[in-house]
Amino acid sequence: MASALAQALLPWFRANGRALPWRGSTDPYAIWVSEIMLQQTQVDRVLPKYHEWLDRYPTFEVLAAARVNDVVETWRPLGYNIRPRRLHDIAREAVARYDGRLPDDEATSHGYLRVIDESGEDYGYSNDRFFEIELPEALEKTLLVAFKEDRNIA
Question: Which tens digit of pLDDT belongs to each residue from 45-65?
Fold first, then answer.
């Protein structure tokens, strides 16, 4: 039934989805930065920081070479201040071990790209498998009805 949900959501998204800078990007680094910034943070708060971040740290190499205190300061006021420190650590490792890129294989990437918040919660790789999850049947049916009726619920 997940494919039915996808078939209902995708046309709605094409008609109603917001244009966001990371959606059209093919740069794995820029997409990865957006994923980390968007975890538990509203899109409207992320947008200016996303642009500032990429202006200041456009690649893993530039981020890895930056002072960690500057990285943390650039991150403010997004909160979850362990994230910029972890991003910096990952950038340094990407440069040292993976030629300035994200690892190619999923097993390495999964462990490598995890971000642990102050709460101890793991947010790595949580968003990229939406259509693979098993939704409770009642929720899935509700979503299918809502999107098939073409309601604007954005």
Answer: 999 999 999 999 999 999 999
| Residue 91: partners with Cβ closer than 8 Å, 6 or more residues away | 57, 60, 61, 63, 64
Which residue reads 């890895």 in tokens? 64
Query: Which among 35, 73, 118, 121 is annotated as catalytic?
Result: 35
* Cα 17 from Cα 14, distance rounded (Å): 6
CA distance 9 to 35: 20
Domains of the chain: 25-130 (1.10.340.30)
Task: Kindly report, residue by residue over 85-120, the tens digit of the pLDDT.
Answer: 988 988 898 898 888 887 766 555 555 555 444 455
Mean residue pLDDT of the chain comes to 75
Which pLDDT value is given to residue 7? 76
For 64-73, which contacts have Cβ atoms below 8 Å and span 24 or more sequence positions? 64/88, 64/91, 64/92, 64/94, 64/95, 64/96
What does R_g of the chain's alpha carbons equal in angstroms? 18
Is 35 catalytic? The answer is: yes
